[in-house]
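yo, Formate--tetrahydrofolate ligase is done. seq:
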Amino acid sequence: MAYKTDIQIAREANKLKIQEIGAKLGIPEDDLLPYGHDKAKVSQSFINGVQDRANGKLILVTAINPTPAGEGKTTTTVGLGDGLNRIGKKAAICIREASLGPNFGMKGGAAGGGRAQIVPMEDMNLHFTGDFHAITSAHALLSAMIDNHIYWGNELDIDLRRVVWRRVVDMNDRALRQVNVSLGGVSNGFPREDGFDITVASEVMAILCLSNDLSDLQKRLGNMIVAYRRDRTPVFARDLKADGAMTVLLKDAMQPNLVQTLENNPAFVHGGPFANIAHGCNSVIATKTALKLADYVVTEAGFGADLGAEKFMNIKCRKAGLAPAVVVCVATVRAMKMNGGVAKADLGTENVEAVQQGCPNLGRHIENLKSFGVPVVVAINHFVTDTDAEVQAIKDFVASMGAEAILSRHWELGSEGSETLATRVAEIAEADTANFAPIYPDDMPLAEKIQTICRKIYRADAATMDDKILKQLRDWEEQGYGDLPVCMAKTQYSFSTDPTQRGAPTGHRVLVREVRLSAGAGFVVAVCGEIMTMPGLPRHPSAETIMLNADGQIEGLF
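structure:
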């Protein structure tokens, strides 16, 4: 049977005007700032006016380590949100915005799939409301002001060898990872080494996603460290007087975006840090706003639970005072077979033994999630090639782990297919059995926080850090940054730093190659293994097949 593509389904959506979607959450028309007919920003004044309301239940959707077979985490997030509304709950969805880099690289889109999508799909996967452009521009402004300050005499005595603020662009472009700037003579400034990260790795992105309001945003922007002097003292963005203008550029981007699912349920789509190189969660302001307006809020954390969920718990929840009532871990029969050693070309053939051999990866994630004190439900995202025996193998394994697995067919059937999952998740959330706590305290030394994540979450024997890195961490502790959480930058494909090592490896070591202080965002980044903060395009990027058809419609996004 031939199925319609995601973009075909999205194009046929019966969308409501965004004012009608806002009305479902009690948002007056005057507090919606529309971008066309089907998307809008929610005003800060309205958000300020609902802060005295009680919070709804927060549900986190995470997943096993991603495989080329696809897991469907965003699809499940949307399907669960629609399912909760179907069974009579007032639910909203909170996800991240899509980055142009992976959309034109490998991914092709990030709005869900099948009958569980957020629309307008094309807008969300391209320019949307311009938030990423605003973040890129604010970041670029600071970059320009650093080199401009140096050019006009360097009053702050910045050491050109110790400028730590890199440039960004929202595109996968490996050629920009390391560059030389200010070449071409006296009039162009003082030559130095520089480099680009992708916009979603920008500290400005992290700050926007962790700030509560514009005042908090400007304070955090000012606290960013951009360089060091020869005496190793830090130079902050506020020293360059850049924080005010950057806040102006981010004024509109700070307001959450409201859109809708295919079933016309409300969805906040705001912020977009990657989970393999940043903290991987949508904005705090969007999540907190949704919790004031809905009884249930379904949000997701990027990539597998070892990255996205760990950072959601240890960074976002810690910083924002949030706590999930239940966690849904997405798995698929296909991914279990890949973890069990089956090639992608053979995934359509029943292989119960391979499913069983691949389940330890899922089991590791269940154990890790439970270590945060939260109940866990496994959502088996259904594919049409799955057999009853393969599905039962996952259910049996999950039961042996003291959890429950539920088959969900939201991709094919929308909320009708996720009704069972939604019912069980709501029951668990309402039981209030969660006793959430991060896995390390604020006052633990930074190096030990890194070791704790590597041992408890990745099951590594240890993290390997050279003396230079250990000294850097101690210096930051002496400067007052020792209470910050740690953001691990690591491959998403494995618990180890080897992307080819699937399953649930043990006995490995995590090489910490570099550490970066994000003083404004409020965390320390540990760059591990071969991970890059500027991805490259694959041999045949999705951009090769994205185009306009004869009717002027976009093709190739999926």
